[in-house]
Design brief:
This protein has nine helices and two strands. Strands 1-2 form a two-stranded antiparallel sheet. By secondary structure, the protein is mainly α. β1 and β2 form a beta hairpin. It is globular and about 60 Å long.
Amino acid sequence: MISNGQMVGMILAIVVPIMIGIVVFLHIKKELKVKGLFFTACYGAVGYLWEAWIYAMAYNWLSAWMIQEDWFLTGFGDIVRQILVSLMYAVFVAGGLYWAVFLANMRESDVRRGTTVGLGFGVCYTVWNYVLVYGAPIIYGFQMKFGGFSESDEIKQKVLGLQVENMYLFALDTVLFTLILIGTTLVMGYYHQHGNKGRMFLVVFVSQFVIKFFNTLFPTLLPDMVSTVIYHALMSVAAVYSMWILLTYLKTGKVMISKDKDIPLSKKASDKNDTSQANFSYAGNKKRIK
């Protein structure tokens, strides 16, 4: 019989990330008071579906090629394999977010539109991966719990073998991933506003490469518990920093990398006027930013 802990874990794996996403979205919408944020979130969701589909095909091709090469089975070859997979992953995530931010700003370029693109991307990531991982098991779980389960014993054992701690880690991973993307796409929107398309792509490429690489590297070098703690500690720091960037922007209208320093721009890009803040108000009052 499936345990209550497993049922709760599978439900929370999807409910917690989505609820946090909704709370963050409502807070952004309340502070910015700008129309179209829901549709920019939808662009982010479509961006994820686009990149995930292409990435899956590219990953299968790359994996099939590396399996045939014995060199990738060596210790150094395994690290090279992880680097190649991480590079490919980062390229497609960066491409999906770049495309989504571009579409969100196609009719009207505005830094504020970047605040919800990453949110939509992350929430779609949660739902998509939840369906693949826990969609069928949660249905089977309810059937086992309340009757009506008619599947094979093999499927039953797979569902019963699901680890509760992995479900909670899944929820934590998707929350941290989404929060990081919100700050990332805000910075991307800022670079888009100033015409710096290279840095717009680079900021997400570098961040996603580092996340993917260390997510696969730590388990090969360290015990499972140690690697899990270190990885999630680093992800938490990145998520807190991304939220600081967002909250600072909502409060001041400025995209900052530290307390007294704006996001750097090239000399050519910095010459462009930022018109996105013309109708922006500080959180908590109605003073215009000049």
